[in-house]
Every structure is written in C-alpha cells, then in structure tokens.
Amino acid sequence: MSKRASAGRYAKALFDVALQENLLDQVAADLDGLAALVSGHEELQRTFANPAIPAQVKRKLVGALATRLALQGPLAKLLTLLADRDRLWLVQELRQSFTDCLNAHRRILQAEVVTAEPLAAEQAAVWQKRLSTATGWTVSLTTRVDPALLGGVKARIGSTVYDGSIATQLARLRGSLVERL
Fold first, then answer.
1. Which of 7, 67, 113, 149 measures 20 to 30 Å from 142, CA to CA?
2. What is the per-residue pLDDT across 143-163, written as a single tens digit (0 to 9) for each?
3. Measured between alpha carbons, how far is 147 from 120 in angstroms, rounded to an integer?
C-alpha cells in the first residue's frame, strides 16, 4: 500500500473522531504544528523513519512531543498508535490527507491558475469567483507564473486541467496543419 493511501486511512479515522468530538480546528492546527516541527528537524525525521528504533522508544518520543506541543485527544492517541505500528514516517502525508478531508467537509477546492504574467490581486479574485461559481464550492486559489504559456490561462482544479493557453492553442493549430499536409 502506498504512503498516501495508508496515511489517508489514518487521516479519515482521525477526521471522523475529531468531527464527532467537535475538534476539527484544534486537530488541524496541532497536526500542522507537528508536521512543521518534523519537516524542520532532520534527526526527528530519521528517527521516525528508522525501523531499527524500538516502538517503545518512539512511543516515549511521541509522549514528549505531545507534551511539548500540547497535543491532546485523538491526535495524541493516533501518534501513539503510529509509534506502536512503526508508521510515524507518515506524519507529512497524514497532515495532507487530513487537510484534504477537512477541505472536502467544508466544501473547499484547491485550484491553481497559471499565467504567462503575474496576476494582479483583482484578477486573481475574479478567477477565484469564476471558479467558485463554476464548481459550486469555495475555491482556495493559488497563482503561478509560467512564461512558456506565452499568454492565456491554465487552471487546475484537483486533477482536472483547463488549458486556454496560447502555447497549447498554437500546438493544436500546428498539429491540425501537419495533418492536412
């Protein structure tokens, strides 16, 4: 099973418990803090990933982290379970999967708009509103610049890509001209 799929199962269980106990925001914030700590600490990452370190040692480490970060409730229990099962290396994927569950629950889609030139704040707001209207969900928009587009826009919502870039239109035109020759 892939890391993402395994983390997804744990994240879904954590989400369900946090939702039931009305702790979604607290668990999300705690999980973000833990993931940031782990990503910024090379030795901690190696410890989490090392199967030669006994579960008992990892369990003590998780207890110390839970105390230091004031983690409580379902997240602390899940981390103890992950330590026992030697799955602490899933923390980053767990955070991402939990965020995906939370966004789906709140009907928030992640979208990216790529343009050849930087978008002004007003233009980004217009794109965000258009995408929200088209999907019926709230859209969290990120923008990126790719000069290779030449012009136009490429939008990605989840795994769906809408490509209205000039580079793609020119490639299609070239393809149709080549077919005719």
1. 7
2. 999 998 888 899 999 888 888
3. 16
